[in-house]
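Problem 12. The chain below contains 154 residues. Write out its predicted structure in token notation.
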Amino acid sequence: LEHHEPTLRVILQKSKFLTRAVKTLVTSPGPLRGVLLNCMNLLRLRAQSLPPSAFLPQYLNSHDGWREHMDKIVDLTIDQQKPIKDDGRDVNIGLGSNYAKELGLGESIQEFDGTSVLEGTTTSSNADTSKQEGNPGKNAGGKKKKKNNKKKKK
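Solution.
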């Protein structure tokens, strides 16, 4: 599972997915709750495997709704993952668990230990400068130039 920062920025920031998903989870139980829980836990677990300077952990830690309702999301997930016949065993929803594997986070995805480096990951501050320098389609402000696609009248 690759950490693709530009895609995460679009999904999380521009579409306000995280804000909407957290609000939906805590206010209204519905048919999408299981899917949203899986999405939230995928973000939670993936952030644990990345350096704190990467976009995803920074974004989640700065999001008020995420921080405020994280415990509730974990509790909902544990309730969701309890077997029907509860024999008193603890439910593990952390990295390396069967739950994490079901979400696509195999054994190669481990909790960040401060020594591993993720290829292609940049911090938020130098990501903007690298985009500006290496992309001729953007001006100095980092915005795309608009193309004039109007057809000429004959």
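Discussion. The helical segments are 5-14, 17-27, 33-48, 55-62, 64-81, 98-102, 124-134. Students who got a different answer should revisit the alignment rule from Section 12.3.
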